[in-house]
Amino acid sequence: VLPGPVLAIESSCDETACAILSSDGTCLAQRVVSQDGHADFGGVVPEIAARAHLALLPGLVRATLADAQLTANDIGFVASTTGPGLIGGLIVGSGFGKGLALALGKPFVAVNHVEAHALTARIPGLVPGGAPFPYLLLLVSGGHCQCIAVEGVGQYRKLGGTIDDAAGEAFDKVAKMLGLGWPGGPALEKLARDGNPKTIPLPRPLLGREGCDFSFSGLKTALSQKLAPFGQSPLPRQFAADLAASFQQAVADVVADRITHALRMMPDAGLLVCAGGVAANSVLRARLETVAEQHGIRFAAPPLKLCTDNAVMVGWAALETCQEAARRGLPQPDDTATRPRPRW
Ligand code: KG4
Ligand code: ZN
């Protein structure tokens, strides 16, 4: 197995992150910079993100090494996210990682971002009782929305995904309609606390439908129709809160139904893991816990800072990949020639 520590880089969206993990998965240091400069545009601007990664990475890597009280020469190998994600950021992060590895004469390992989210629950000590395979992963963020059967390292089956918006994207778009800024998920949840989820009827797209795909665009449209009568005038605060609560409830209902179906498709799952930024939503979390309980399985959501984009998960996925290769008697990975893959 490649000797650690591993220095990992994440740059697939608008978080620039670096982490250093020892061979056993202990995090020695980690830093995440959530880029500013996107909010004014109401979403991540790929060009701005790529330039920001380029500007941030050298200082971030230096600072993370200093936090871990290491120098670059102490690093055993380097890992970067090489997909899926925004191509500009992937080029910057993987180019930086490969250059560093080359300069140090150390191997480079390419990491799939979704795989990194999928394996996060297995970081030692994160989930009480651990996360042995197989388990069901619900990945819900601004860019991802899918149910994945996690059967082993490198063994994943996509059971379903969104046919339009990602869950976080829907939260962000609705929040924008309610004038809550971007990204609006957390603000929407806060507003919803003052609202009654039963006041405004909204559709539950795909509820009860075969499989575990998601759809959120109909819900978003229905909501915009409720806003239409107000035109440009400001929404009454209670109405906005009721809308936020009703929307959140509709999303929770849909997700609970979809996960119930996913668990039917994966009867051997011993654990339900929820990852991605939307996992921060307490209403959704509570519903998922209930679904897991009804199926007699455990529920786990990694701590929030490991649920959203970070480099610890990238380093951990690289370590698991090395261990799995060793278990199978395969050569250790060296992905210096791997290209970034935006749709990996
Ligand atoms: O994983 P993440 O940080 O970045 C990616 O999109 O990859 O997820 C961010 C998403 C945003 O859409 C944000 O609005 C949503 O997660 N989010 C939430 C909450 N906190 C973050 N959505 C609903 N409720 C929350 N409390
Ligand atoms: Zn992500």
From TrEMBL:
Q: Does the keyword Iron apply?
A: yes
**What this chain does, per the record?**
Required for the formation of a threonylcarbamoyl group on adenosine at position 37 (t(6)A37) in tRNAs that read codons beginning with adenine. Is involved in the transfer of the threonylcarbamoyl moiety of threonylcarbamoyl-AMP (TC-AMP) to the N6 group of A37, together with TsaE and TsaB. TsaD likely plays a direct catalytic role in this reaction.
* Location within or outside the cell: Cytoplasm
Which InterPro entries does the UniProt entry name for this protein? ATPase_NBD, Gcp-like_dom, KAE1/TsaD, Peptidase_M22_CS, TsaD
Q: Name one GO biological process term.
A: tRNA threonylcarbamoyladenosine modification
Query: What family is this protein classified in?
Result: Belongs to the KAE1 / TsaD family.
Q: Give me the residues that bind substrate, please.
A: L139, V140, S141, G142, G143, D172, G185, E189, N281
**Official protein name in the record:** tRNA N6-adenosine threonylcarbamoyltransferase
Q: List the NCBIfam families hit by this protein, alphabetically.
A: gcp_kae1, T6A_TsaD_YgjD
Broadest EC class? transferase
- Give GO cellular component annotations, separated by semicolons: cytoplasm
Gene Ontology molecular functions: iron ion binding; tRNA N(6)-L-threonylcarbamoyladenine synthase activity
Q: Where does Fe cation bind?
A: H113, H117, D309
Keywords recorded for this protein, A-Z: Acyltransferase, Cytoplasm, Iron, Metal-binding, Transferase, tRNA processing
